[in-house]
Amino acid sequence: MDTSKEMARLAYEALEDKKGEDIQIIDIKDISSIADYFIIANGSNSSQVDALVDSVMERLSRNGYEPKRVEGVRSASWILMDYGDVVVHVFSKEERLFYNLERIWRDGRTINREEL
């Protein structure tokens, strides 16, 4: 299994374990050099957003993956975790609707969990 798929699978599972809402995986490797996958999810409140972020970071760290950068932790409304080939976005519900990354990256291919 390639590294980016493994990271994406682990991140998805971590978000799912903490009941992340509307988890989306967007394959952007054919349209951008930024990353291979964007994973987008939201929480229903700031405590859940924090729990989602902690879950992803803990699961990936336990498997040997450390983020290159994490931004937005103080606000708990949009947290970006950059793992190089995989970028995880965790939003509050309102911020996700406002920024609508799925629309911006609609040229990417939305994939389901089973494809990882």
Folded structure, characterized:
By secondary structure, this protein is of the alpha+beta class. It has a single domain (3-115), classed as Beta Polymerase, domain 2 (2-Layer Sandwich), CATH 3.30.460. The chain has four helices and six strands. The protein has a six-stranded mixed β-sheet. A hairpin with a 3-residue loop joins strand 4 and strand 5 (86-92). Helix 1 (3-17) packs antiparallel against helix 2. The radius of gyration is 13 Å and the shape is globular. The model has no long low-confidence stretch (mean pLDDT 94).
Would you kindly provide a brief summary of this structure?
By secondary structure, this protein is α+β, with helices and mostly antiparallel strands. The protein has one domain: Beta Polymerase, domain 2, CATH 3.30.460.10. The chain is built from four helices and six strands.
Number of strands: 6
| Largest sheet properties | 6 strands, mixed
CATH level-3 fold name = Beta Polymerase, domain 2
CATH level-1 class: Alpha Beta
The CATH homologous superfamily is termed: Beta Polymerase, domain 2
Q: Count the domains.
A: 1
Anisotropy-based shape = globular
Order of helices and strands: HEEHEEEHHE
Our measurement of the CA-to-CA distance between the termini, rounded to an integer number of angstroms, reads 9 Å
